[in-house]
Design brief:
The protein is α+β, with helices and mostly antiparallel strands. It has a two-stranded antiparallel ribbon with strand order 1-2. Strand 1 and strand 2 form a beta hairpin. Helix 1 runs antiparallel to helix 2 and helix 2 packs antiparallel against helix 3. It is globular.
């Protein structure tokens, strides 16, 4: 991930909503920082921003969910939004 800037990520689509794109870019940047400095986790606010942006665009739900899954976050939903976030990576 270090070799690829987020502008080159295949998951970012041209027609993707701007706020969702920014949330994804932010998470990817934080993961790169985490890896570079050997940190244990990224601040949960970045994950929350990604969830919030993803909830606004259900057509991008699969992408958002796959990204969260790959980061080790298991999100449980109720009918009106996320119920709780479980960090399965730790």
């Amino acid at each position: 991930m270090k070799d690829k800037s987020y502008k080159e990520l295949e998951i970012l689509e041209e027609d993707m909503p701007h706020d969702l794109k920014v949330a994804i870019e932010s998470v990817v940047t934080q993961v790169s920082i985490m890896e570079e400095y050997k940190l244990e986790e990224i601040p949960i606010e970045y994950i929350q921003n990604l969830i919030d942006a993803g909830l606004k665009y259900p057509e991008w739900d699969t992408l958002t969910q796959e990204l969260l899954d790959s980061l080790g976050y298991d999100i449980e939903y109720e009918h009106d939004g996320p119920l709780r976030v479980k960090d399965t990576a730790n």
